[in-house]
Amino acid sequence: MNGLIKHGFFAHLRHDLRLINRRRGEVASPLIFFVIAATLIPLGVSPEARVLSMIAPGIIWVMALLATLLSADRLFDADYNDGSLEQILISPQLLVMPVLGKIAAHWLTTGLPLTLVSPLLGLLFSLPSEGYGAMMAGLAIGTCCLSLLVALGAALTVSLKNGGLLLTLIVMPLYMPVLIFGTATAQYSIDGLAWDVPLAVLAAMLTMAIALCPIAIAGILRLTTMN
Amino acid sequence: MTVKKPLLSVKNLCFRRDDTDILRAICLDIDEGDILQIEGVNGSGKTTLLRLLTSALLPSQGSIQFCGKFLADCRFDYLSSILFLGHQSAVKMGLTAEENLAWMTGLMKHSESISFALEAFGLKGYSDISCHRLSAGQQRRVALARLMLSNVKIWYLDEPFAALDAQGCALVEKCMQRHIDGGGAVVLSTHQSVALESLRRYSLPALNQHELY
Amino acid sequence: MNWNWFYRMGSPKWFFYTTSRWLPWLGVLTSCLLVTGLVWGMAFAPEDAKQGNSFRIIYLHVPASLLALAGYFLMATAGAIGLIWRMKLSFMVMKCAAPLGAVLTFLALFTGAIWGKPTWGSYWVWDARVTSMLILLFLYLGVLALQYAFQSPEVGNKASAILALVGTVNIPIIYKSVDWWFTLHQPSTIKFTEAPSMHPDMFQPLLVMILGFYCFYALALFMSVRVEILHRERKTAWVRDLVSQEAKEREGVNS
Predict the structure, then answer these.
(1) pLDDT, tens digit, for every residue of C237-251?
(2) With a cut of 50, which residues of chain C have pLDDT below it?
(3) A4, A192, B64, C211: which has the highest count of C-beta atoms within 10 A?
(4) What is the pLDDT of residue C1?
């Protein structure tokens, strides 16, 4: 049957990655924001290594959070505007699969690069050397959660002209548990505690988010796209 | 002449939003070989009707039956046998015409049928050019080239002639004629007159908001 | 089982006329409870050994916080009922519960700040419960903002109902993680006097106040839902009849 698209998870993932690959600037901008906004902190707070190393995990996490928010419009906006989302809604498959594919593509182009760049910020903030591994592990899992949550907000605001600010308001409260346990993972390893505990909690949250978010997003898209 | 097999039967379809009737009591029958033009003034709900028919929207009342079964019971079967082309043509600017068609139809990128369809729609030399460099009419043609490649039963075309020149319109008409000759059905909304003899018209009344209460 | 009562309850007209009969009673009950509780709590309850008179603000603070949280779940439940059974009235309840809950959450935070100054020495402390309350306020604001962001009230209703439901799944997680975060960072200077050992003389007026707040919440919710009903159903025959009847009565009084 070649009349209507029946693309699953991997097809959408590949398709989205290819599209993003054609517009590489968009991938770079959250990353650049991540680094530049973080460099403002020492200017605003203090250049002292002692102070900076204390707040480093928190700063890096808050910046990662803002960077994922910044890239939220990449998830569904283009598809909404050119009519692709409408086509996906009436494709003969469970809506959850394309949604998950899109979220995975979003994470691969936002969360993953952020995780990879984070050691650089760690250096800028004199993060103690014990913290790097835990911070990256936490970011890798945590940004996955963030991508799922931001997709929820993006789906809710997809049909709105100026949805960006509203998206922030919607998603921020949902981010808080991730922020808490993400920062704690890095902090625990710096303090010499068992950092796999908060990491495990993060992973548990991710499991739950993967199970529930796509279903909610599919329902939301059916509602907001046909507006 | 053979008896036409009924495809779609729409009974008493209503759609309300915010306590306002957008569509009221729509009854339609679509058989194999039918071509149905939905007419109506702006705002009479043509797009909404098409969205209801493609089951992107759920009706407030009424039922749609596909081959004798209610849509809720055969949604996937139904969705695999329809094609919908909306106002927005779902053409990705970042991809080439070829890639777009391959994505939309699920065919291989360099397959012969795709280059044949592109050639038929006058896009022969443009197949590997990124779509943002094409004109609006050419972009529309990329989307419409899907019609050449589809083997589904029912086409839903929302304003298919928008942004097309006379030659493009004739091409689309030819596609539609071939489709209905092959036992398919077409439902389209357009303000243009369509030069197909078997065309049926369905006029949507303009609903007066005040007479609702 | 007969579900007629359930669907009848979904009818705005039925709701409007039934609550018309309840409202006076509820109003009297609310004012009795609130006045009794306030006078009892403010004037007659014994002074706290450590905090002196400043503790008396709990008679506003505790009921407001309780209702703020309970109100969120009521809002989400109403939203869920609306989504599942497509009940218009249920969405109206949800829509009216949002600003009410937001105001109560703000009241809880505000009274908490007033209480915090003499007790902890500062208006704001990043305590687990205070932080959770703040996040609850954000959740409320999100639902409210989403509600009004859409051109179509129906889409706004459904979208914010889904968001409220997502929030309900998240609230326990948020509360637990904020709790955990707080034990991680707890500064040693702040000590909390827990309330279970509260003297009955202090506790009884608090109970009356909590009851009073519940009644007040119901009263406020009913009244705003009634306004919403009149607004949404303004074109229907029964609302028109009601309005013209009211206008006639008023003319009769004036002349």
Answers:
(1) 888 888 889 888 888
(2) 188-192
(3) A4
(4) 54
Q: Which domain holds residue C80?
A: 24-191+199-240
Mean pLDDT of A103-122: 94
* Ramachandran sector of residue A183 (left: φ over 0; alpha: ψ -120 to 50; beta: rest): alpha
**B88 with A81: Cβ contact below 8 A:** yes
Is the pLDDT reported for residue A26 higher than 60? yes
| Locus of tokens 């849509």 | B71
Tokens 């030399």 map to which residue? B125
Does B17 touch chain C if contact means CB atoms closer than 8 Å? yes
Chain C residue with minimal CA distance to B60?
C86
pTM, 2 dp: 0.90
Here the ipTM equals 0.89
**Sheet of B82-85, strand order:** B82-85, B154-158, B185-189, B35-39, B199-203
Residue A125: both structure tokens together: 């903030």
Across the range B144-161, mean pLDDT stands at: 90
Q: Which residues contact C203 (CB under 8 A, 6 or more apart)?
A: none
The model's pLDDT over A179-209, given as tens digits with 9 standing for 90+, comes to 999 999 999 999 999 999 999 999 999 999 9
Q: What mean pLDDT do residues B68-92 have?
A: 89
Overall domain count for chain B = 1
Closest CB from B87, B94, B99 relative to A23: B94
Site from B16, B22, B92, B132 to mutate, A interface, most A CB atoms within 10 angstroms: B92
Q: How far apart are the CA of B10 and the nearest CA of chain A, in angstroms?
A: 18
User: Is A173 an interface residue toward C (CB < 8 Å)?
Assistant: yes
Q: Which CATH number is B132's domain given?
A: 3.40.50.300
- Interface A–C counts its CB contacts (< 8 A) at 70
Chain A residues closer than 8 Å to C176 by CB: 177
Q: How many domains does chain C have?
A: 1
CA distances from C164 to B10, C146, C158, C171 (A): 36, 10, 10, 10
Give the pLDDT score at C187. 52
Residue A186: name the closest of A141, A145, A137, A146 by CA.
A137
